[in-house]
Amino acid sequence: MSEPDRMSVSRVLAVPDLSLVVLIGATGSGKSTFAARHFKPTEVISSDFCRGLVSDDENDQSASGDAFELLHFIVGKRLAAGRLTVVDATNVQTESRARLVQLAREHDVLPVAIVLDVPEHVCAERNAARADRAGLPLRVIQRHQRELRRSLGKLEREGFRKVHVLRGEREAEAAEIVRERRFNDLRHLTGPFDIVGDIHGCRSELETLLGRLGYKLARDDQGRAVDAVHPEGRTAVFVGDLVDRGPDSPGVLRLVTGMVAAGHALCVSGNHENKLGRYLNGRTVQHTHGLAETIEQLEKEDEAFRVGAAEFIRGLVSHYVLDGGGLVVCHAGLPEKYHGRTSGRVRSFALYGDTTGETDEFGLPVRYPWAEEYRGRAAVVYGHTPTPRAGWVNNTICLDTGCVFGGKLTALRWPEREVVDVPAERVWYEPAKPLATEAPGGADGRPLDLGDVAGRRVVETRHMGRLAVREENAAAALEVMSRFAIDPRLLPYLPPTMAPCATAKPSEEADARGEGFLEHPREAFAEYRAAGVREVVCEEKHMGSRAVVLVCRDEAVARERFGVSAAGVSGALYTRTGRPFFDDRETTERILRRVRDCVERAGLWSELDTEWLLLDAELMPWSLKATGLLRTQYAAVGAASRMVFPGALGALEAAADRGVEVAALLDRQRGRAADAVAFTDAYRRYCWRVGEPAPPPAEAAPGLAGIRLAPFQILAVEGRSLAGLPHTEQLALIDRLIAADQSLPSGEDATVADATGADATGEGAMVMDPTTDDPTVMDPTVGNAPAGSAADRIPLLAPTRRLVVDTEDEASVAAGVEWWLDLTAEGGEGMVVKPVRALVRQTDGRLVQPGIKCRGREYLRIVYGPEYTRPENLRRLRVRHLGHKRSLALREYALGLEALDRLADGEPLWRVHEAVFAVLALESEPVDPRL
Question: What range does the record give for the signal peptide (predicted)?
Answer without folding.
Answer: none
